[in-house]
Known about the structure:
By secondary structure, the protein is an alpha+beta fold.
Amino acid sequence: MSTADPHLLTGAYALHALPDDERTDFERHLSGCESCAVEVAEFTATAARLASAASEPVRAALRGEVLRRVTGVRQVAPGKAAPAQARRSVPRGRGPARWALAACVAAAAVFGGTAVWQYERAQDARQQAALAERHADQVAGVLGAPDAATRSARMAGGTGTLVVSAGRDRAVFVASGMAAPPEGKVYQLWFADGGRMRPAGLLGTGRAGQTVLMRGRVDGASGVGVTVEPAGGSRQPTTKPLGLLSVPARPSHVS
């Protein structure tokens, strides 16, 4: 197949738009894939409905008119072009054929759009997976760093733990057993830089335990605070901190 994912070919298969080799490979896949079989059946039914909706009934007198015209059409010998007059006599863009063609074009547009949507959805999923993997690697790098140092404090009915790697200049916040914030609110993390508070990320709602890579570099911050803020966070704290954690000093044995 020309694509690595046969699940994206259901629309093209239903429209008979696959080359012979791809059609053969897809039919082999189709025999063992229930979800693709359902999609092909739905696409085929949709194409039939589109064609039916775009068709118009044939006039009862049309058959007689066609037969009368056939008797007056001059036959062309093999290898000779049809007379110009005969070519001009064939009307273009009229009658049921035009509507059938329009229905096919509409169906192709529908299935093409579905295939594009499926492809974009798969791309989004891959990008999200890559971001999640990179985030996990960064968290693991801080937690497992030789110079990792911690501070813990009780807050919101649970425990908040700050892990800092001076060498990586990054920090991780680990929440354990913390109560859910009030409805429409979130827990927000802050770096304390002298007399100002710098936003450092949000804790997810509905999870008592979580590990968050704090946003931005530690960059000489003296402490970390946690406040309750409106959903989406704030530029500056709007409530008193639930807890304050001093940034641990770099261990003396780590060079």
